[in-house]
Amino acid sequence: MPSSPFIIIAIDGGAASGKSSTSRAISERFHLLHVDTGSFYRAVTAELLRRGVAPSDTAAVHHVLPQLKLTTRVQGRSASMEIGGHIAGEEIRSPEVNASVSHFAAIPELRTFLLAYQRGQADVARSHGFRGLVMEGRDIGSVIFPEADFRFYLHADPAERARRRAEQGHVDQIAERDRMDSQRKTAPLTIPSGATDIDSTYLTLEQVVEKLSGLIEAKLPRL
Ligand code: DC
């Protein structure tokens, strides 16, 4: 019997667009490793802030990055970034990290630093026996895995996204982060050509997951 193919699903979208809940549900449904690349940018941001590095000080960023030893721990179905063997906690969702993560993420050297690490998550998924991976972020379908089997772009009305974030109890500048993430020169937030665009403003999480699952299942036998 031929072995089943390794599946890569890319889910991009703006802040609070529903990427995480959707990706988590898709990872369960199809036995995939869930990789939240926003949490990677957040963990590196928290570490740089902890070391007193400001995003405007690119020389310091360049100096510190090579010192960060990145590894991955798989917990349940999710990949967590370890820096020097340590997994960052809830501080990666703090107002301080929310306010500076997009500034750090706009630094090309930082994006290059994370590129191989993100692509390497496919090997992590394989070595843990997953059928594939679902990776969420801003540039997954455009830069990290442009050849992914499935590329989705989630969006939702800004007011609805602000409501969802407030419901989670987080202080976040969604519109400001989206503006910065879309306007940066390197790997901006964009709908990759050929990606399936899904507006979740008036859909429940279950409806979004059903929609994606239907599209995935329809194509799976042909992979
Ligand atoms: O998905 P999130 O809101 O947790 O992501 C936090 C920030 O990380 C986001 O504002 C921009 C950056 N990011 C990025 O530049 N590229 C990615 N692939 C994922 C996140």
Would you give an account of this structure?
By secondary structure, the protein is α/β, with parallel strands linked by helices. The chain has one domain: P-loop containing nucleotide triphosphate hydrolases (Rossmann fold), CATH 3.40.50. Helices cover 46% and strands 18% of the residues. It has helices at residues 19-30, 37-50, 58-64, 95-105, 108-119, 121-127, 140-144, 158-167, 174-183, 205-219; strands at residues 7-13, 33-36, 70-75, 78-83, 86-87, 132-137, 150-155, 196-199. A five-stranded parallel beta sheet has the order 2-6-1-7-8, sandwiched between helices. A three-stranded antiparallel beta sheet has the order 3-4-5, covered by helices on one side. A hairpin with a 2-residue loop joins strand 3 (70-75) and strand 4 (78-83). The radius of gyration is 17 Å and the shape is globular. It starts with 6 loop residues before the first strand and ends with a helix. The model has no long low-confidence stretch (mean pLDDT 93). Bound molecules: 2'-deoxycytidine-5'-monophosphate.
What strand line-up does the widest sheet have?
2-6-1-7-8
The CATH level-2 architecture is identified as 3-Layer(aba) Sandwich
- How many domains? 1
Please estimate the helix content. 40-55%
Shape: globular
Counting H and I runs of at least 4 residues, what is the number of helices? 10
Strand content: 15-25%
- Biggest pleated-sheet summary: 5 strands, parallel
CATH superfamily: P-loop containing nucleotide triphosphate hydrolases
Poorly predicted sequence stretches spanning 5 or more consecutive residues:
none
Name the bound molecules: 2'-deoxycytidine-5'-monophosphate
Task: Supply Rg.
Answer: 17 Å
End-to-end separation in angstroms reads: 15 Å
The helix/strand class is: alpha/beta
CATH topology: Rossmann fold
| CATH class (first level) name | Alpha Beta
Indicate the mean pLDDT: 93
Q: Could you give the order of the helices and strands?
A: EHEHHEEEHHHEHEHHEH
The number of distinct β-strands equals 8
